[in-house]
Amino acid sequence: MTRILQSDNLDKCVARWREAGLTVIGPVKNESSSSYAAVEKAAEFDFSLIMPDRSIKELFFPQTEPMLQYTIKKQRIDTSDFTPPPEKRIIFGARPCDASGLAIDDPLFGWDYKDNFWFQRRDTTVIVTIACTKADDFCMCTSLKLVPDSTKGSDVLLRPLQNNKGWQVEELTDRGRDAFNEIADLLQDGSEPAAPTAVVAEKFNLDTCVAWLQKPENFESTFWREISMRCIGCASCTFLCPTCHCFDFQDEGDTYSGIRRKNWDSCSFALFTMHTSGHNPRATQSARWRQRIMHKFNYFPGKFNVNSCSGCGRCSRQCPVDMGITETLQAISTLQP
Amino acid sequence: MVIGYKPGTTADRRRPHFIRTPEEADQLVLDSACITNLSGYLVSEGLLSDEKAVAIFLKPDGIRSINILAAEAQLNIDQILILGFDINDNQVTALEGEKVEEFATLIESIKEQAPDALKNPLLEKIEGMTPKERFTFWQKEFSRCIKCYACRQACPMCYCRRCIVDCNQPQWVNTSSHTLGNFEWNIVRAFHLSGRCVGCGNCDRACPVNIPLRLINAKMAQEVLGSFDHFAGMSHTQEPVLASFKKDDSETFIL
Ligand code: SF4
Ligand code: SF4
Ligand code: SF4
Ligand code: SF4
Q1: Are the Cβ atoms of B175 and A53 closer than 8 angstroms?
Q2: A269 to B149: CB separation less than 8 angstroms, yes or no
């Protein structure tokens, strides 16, 4: 026997959570684009999406975020901090690769400095993940040693029922249990089997790739230029990626007062590493692409013991020139170590 | 070097392909999925600096880009050998000619069809809106903009080594993707592309959040065609519409 949430009851759950003061968020498709967005009714969710175009990260690390307000006076500078709104949220229908992405970034945002903008949102958000029963040509969680029903980063895991009428409920954390206690009377015990999870073929051997990347002489390999010749440096791959986390500080205002903001930035941009002198240590697009791969599969795991990629495939799915992590790692896995 | 297309990850995708050896030509494909305008690669740093010729597969929109790039002194047309093709009803046809001047008649006929070709039902709907409704429409569309600048990077006409939004001493244009920042960016780009955009659709397809950039481009193309009889990319000596002026201009000032 497992606990079951019937799809028919979801609207009541949404209402119940909203009454309890939670903002309810989930996969939503508008005319032309999809994202995780706030809903008022369960009918607004679209669970048929393989995954939303935009990843879950923007709910924890927005594209642009005010950090502090400053006023420069004659003798002193006054500042006041912004803090993220203290709202409680439940994300219903996260994909396992998106939830994993958050767990991957936690050590980064908490490493030498605890980033409150990130952690305040992490602490007040319940993540209810739905296991994948279908995948597309770009999904590659299994190549990253994850699975379509991975629990990493989730507070509750739901497995779609074979009869398509609801989900098996697996509560994973206290946060998840609390949220589901609110709707305990809307759950049932049942024995309906779960639908099989999606079949995601392994596209490359990660260990082979990592071994190649770790060899210092491969840093200067001609491989980098060849594989990235068609990259136009558009940054879509980094902005859509659930684990890419680079940002820039910008002061917006006039000479005497303004707002300091934290904005997404990308290693794909030439400006990212441009020195004031005009010298750019990553002068070419291939050097920038190498950085993206090295960071994800060499430097990040070297520091945090986890790869900075959850295999969502967005970088390949949305690349205007059909590049992406998959092609590069597939190519690396065929090279002599 | 030959710049063309090769198969992509899925059956309907094509990748830009750079051919330097005879063997690399084996992967070459040309079919109705080859819609990306490849001309932007010609101005990637260093490519033409060895003064060797480059052959490139181009549709009429790409051929017009070559004219603009040449008119704006970004490339030397003697180095460019055009492998022209067009796609109609999913059929690929070869175009006669190799040098950009040889396509003049073709481009002339495209200009004649432009007033009709640029029409778009959604655009007409937007034109029928009040300024306030129009503002709301674009505010909603731009609210999705994540300032990735994929539109710029994908555009053959956006070749500036340092785009105005990258000029950060001081930062002229906000980098934040709040309402103001998104408007600033998209309006700046619309102006910079006026009379230069060839309507290839690279930007629209590259936008990861599907903002209908084609509508802006079509509108600006209609404006310059109507006001100045200017159609982008007619010849490699065509004067840029927003960067040239006449002494006998009826306006008393230059914007
Ligand atoms: S790999 Fe693709 S998505 Fe990423 S910057 Fe290059 S062209 Fe853009
Ligand atoms: S690198 Fe690509 S596949 Fe990996 S998490 Fe980022 S977008 Fe997804
Ligand atoms: S603005 Fe868009 S449609 Fe126009 S030339 Fe540039 S990429 Fe092509
Ligand atoms: S490609 Fe789209 S999201 Fe990116 S900057 Fe351009 S309009 Fe904005």
Answers
A1: no
A2: yes
CB of B197 sitting under 6 A from ligand 3: yes
Domain ranges of chain A: 2-190, 206-333
CB contact A138 to B (< 8 Å): yes
Q: Which is nearest to A134 in space by CA: A164, A155, A171, A99?
A: A164
pLDDT at B255: 54
Ligand minimally distant from the alpha carbon of residue A146: 2
What confidence tens digit (pLDDT) does each residue in A92-103 have? 999 999 999 999
The answer to whether B19 and B38 have CB atoms below 8 angstroms apart is no
Decide if B111 contacts B233 (C-beta within 8 A): no
Instruction: Report CA dihedral (B245, B249, B250, B254) to the nearest 10 degrees.
Output: 30
Q: Is the CB of B205 under 6 A from ligand 4?
A: no
Distance from CA of A129 to the nearest CA of B (A): 23
* pLDDT tens-place string over residues B118-177: 999 999 999 999 999 999 999 999 999 999 999 999 999 999 988 999 998 888 888 999
Average pLDDT, chain B: 94
> What tokens appear for A320 in the block?
């205007």
Q: Which ranges of chain B have pLDDT less than 50?
A: none
Question: The complex's ipTM?
Answer: 0.92
